[in-house]
Design goal:
By secondary structure, the protein is an alpha/beta fold.
């Protein structure tokens, strides 16, 4: 496809660990917005490379053994298939192809600092070998965050002979730069970049002080907001409804918000607070709910989960005021989303773009971590709610619109590509740059022994896809797993018998105690034993062989495989080891990624999704037509 002047769109590879997926549509939404904005220009052909993570733990010898198996499966999945790149990611707009690169991620004390960047680098280079770049000409690699993604993308850009752009979003850069291994890799990435971008002037100032040698290549390029997905609907407003959107972490000012809401509720008994997002853990979520009870406001607070863009836009259009209590933000995307919806904002002075709220026609700013000041500002804003003009609120967002930012980025890419002289010949691989619609999966065998992780991913999968799965797990009870999975094989009984047969002993306790541990969760016992180095590599391999034999003899697995080879997904490294015999003899076919990749594949075979903003009321405003 070419633009109006007959030119081919410039290829741009976007590297981003933070990227929306079926499990979390809010993760890295700002990167997806930018990719959508680039595609909408018609001048850029973006390919997003994100990551589908398999966790690996244990001592170094065990890690090396598991790593080899995982890498072999990933290479086989890519080499033998032409759909490792999907034509769109889950829930995104048409025009953006996504590849979920299989990635090992270490956990535990044995994980060396800097390894996350090295593993991303190796994963990207493996995929680059088979992407079809013939005829593409020089393009641009754009990484979001300096480390680990910028560091990994620098190797990819060098391999391709393309210029590198890095955008920094992270609020924890200072902490990274205090770690010697990460600092070394961060500086190497920025040195390799042709342009180094920060999403706000506040962050740019911090980076200039931390890395003065890169000041000349550093400039500010904000995140992009798709104005066409937000509209103003006065009829939908709910008086005195306050809204918070984001991760419910302590660092986001949640305690300050709940304390402030107690004061607001005392002054305005009709006030309600709606919280959209999620906490990092269930324990943290329980703490917020307990805090709301302790403050006596639990009946007026709604804790809701993460929503997609359409859900957030509807919530923004319904609320009276957005409250943004975070003490520190490098940008502050939800502030713009609210203004685009005609909703005023009360926020703390958190940096980022909060300075635009100095204009009291948009809302108010208060000091961070001051619940009483926050409460007073919200009450004042509610009292003058009818004075806010939707046109004025939306006009403040125009400099950050997808059209504006997408055009600026396209110009930057074009100038860098024009200056570049390709140092690598174009190559023709078997993976299409643009991706293609894929056939829907028939049967998928899923190995997931970490039930908590599997459950979090599987709960988000479409029910029809769940119905085609056989889940093999040795985890906890079935109520932790979502309903609708075609079949769930609980192998703990067979595995426990195999472990007893080969005389696996726990580190302490009676024989009866060890048997109880194995029967309740055999993998937990094995992991504990391996993590303290009590079993050598040979012993561990014997354990795995016993588990593999138990799975292979299972009637459920044998029935699932009876009609021929099936596709297989392995969630973590240990799952790859268990599935290895089935893959080695051809009964199971490894897929190029994990469950996130599978969800993208499902989205790519269905009709392309459409995004609808809330209907606009007759206030002289309407949501523009989405770009074709």
């Amino acid at each position: 496809m070419s633009d109006d002047n007959g030119r081919q769109p410039l290829p741009v590879i976007v590297v981003a660990s933070w990227y929306p997926g079926v499990d979390d549509p809010a993760r890295g939404r700002f990167v997806a917005d930018q990719a959508n904005a680039l595609a909408a220009t018609g001048r850029i052909s973006p390919l997003v490379l994100s990551f589908d993570t398999a966790l690996i733990d244990g001592d170094q010898l065990r890690r090396l053994s598991e790593m080899g198996v995982v890498q072999r499966h990933a290479a086989g999945g890519i080499a033998e298939r032409d759909d490792a790149i999907n034509r769109l990611g889950w829930g995104l707009e048409p025009g953006v192809a996504v590849g979920r690169v299989s990635l090992l991620e270490g956990v535990g004390r044995s994980t060396p600092s800097g390894s996350d960047g090295d593993l991303r680098r190796d994963a990207l280079l493996s995929l680059a070998e088979v992407i079809d770049l013939d005829g593409s000409g020089p393009g641009v690699v754009h990484a979001h965050t300096g480390y680990p993604d910028g560091y990994a993308a620098a190797a990819l850009a060098e391999h391709l002979g393309w210029p590198l752009v890095i955008t920094e979003h992270a609020s924890f850069v200072a902490r990274q730069l205090r770690q010697p291994a990460q600092r070394q890799r961060y500086l190497a990435a920025v040195e390799a970049a042709s342009r180094f971008l920060a999403v706000s002037e506040m962050l740019a100032d911090e980076l200039r002080k931390a890395i003065p040698q890169v000041a000349e290549k550093l400039e500010v390029m904000p995140n992009a907001i798709p104005l066409h997905q937000y509209g103003v609907n006065l009829d939908a407003r709910r008086p005195d409804e306050l809204l918070f959107v984001g991760y419910r972490k302590p660092t986001k000012g949640m305690a300050t918000l709940l304390q402030a809401f107690a004061d607001i509720r005392a002054a305005r008994p009709s006030a309600t607070l709606r919280l959209i997002g999620r906490s990092p853990t269930e324990e943290v979520e329980r703490q917020w709910q307990q805090m709301s009870r302790d403050l006596g406001v639990q009946d007026a607070v709604r804790f809701e989960g993460t929503m997609d863009r359409a859900g957030v836009a509807a919530a923004m259009g319904r609320a009276s005021v957005l409250v943004h209590p975070s003490p520190r933000e490098t940008f502050g995307m939800t502030t713009l989303e609210a203004l685009a919806s005609g909703t005023p904002v009360v926020a703390t002075r958190s940096g980022g773009i909060s300075g635009i709220l100095e204009d009291r026609r948009l809302g108010e700013l208060v000091p961070p971590q001051d619940s009483r000041a926050l409460a007073r500002a919200v009450i004042r804003t509610l009292e003058r709610r009818d004075s806010f003009e939707p046109i004025t609120l939306r006009a403040a967002v125009e400099p950050y619109s997808s059209v504006e930012v997408g055009g600026r980025l396209a110009n930057l890419y074009a100038s860098l590509a024009a200056e570049a002289s390709p140092s690598r010949p174009s190559r023709r691989g078997h993976l299409s740059w643009r991706g293609a619609a894929t056939a829907e999966p028939d049967r998928v065998l899923v190995f997931a022994n970490d039930t908590d992780r599997a459950s979090a991913l599987l709960r988000s999968m479409p029910s029809e896809l769940l119905g085609r799965m056989l889940l093999v797990t040795a985890g906890a009870d079935s109520e932790e797993l979502p309903a609708g999975i075609g079949a769930t094989l609980r192998t703990r009984g067979d595995i426990a018998r195999e472990l007893r047969r080969i005389r696996i002993e726990g580190p302490r306790g009676t024989t009866l105690d060890r048997a109880k541990r194995l029967l309740s969760n055999p993998f937990a016992a094995v992991r504990r034993r391996l993590s303290i180095g009590g079993l050598g590599t040979l012993r561990w391999q014997t354990v795995m062989a016993g588990i593999q034999a138990a799975v292979a003899r299972s009637p459920e697995v044998r029935a699932f495989l009876s009609d021929g080879p099936v596709e297989v997904i392995c969630v973590d490294a240990i799952d790859h080891v268990i599935a290895d015999p089935l893959i080695a003899d051809g009964r199971a076919i490894p897929l190029p990624g994990g469950l996130l990749w599978l969800a993208d594949r499902w989205a790519s075979r269905e009709p392309e999704p459409t995004s609808a903003a809330p209907p606009a009321a007759d206030v002289g405003l309407s949501a523009p037509t989405p770009p074709a």
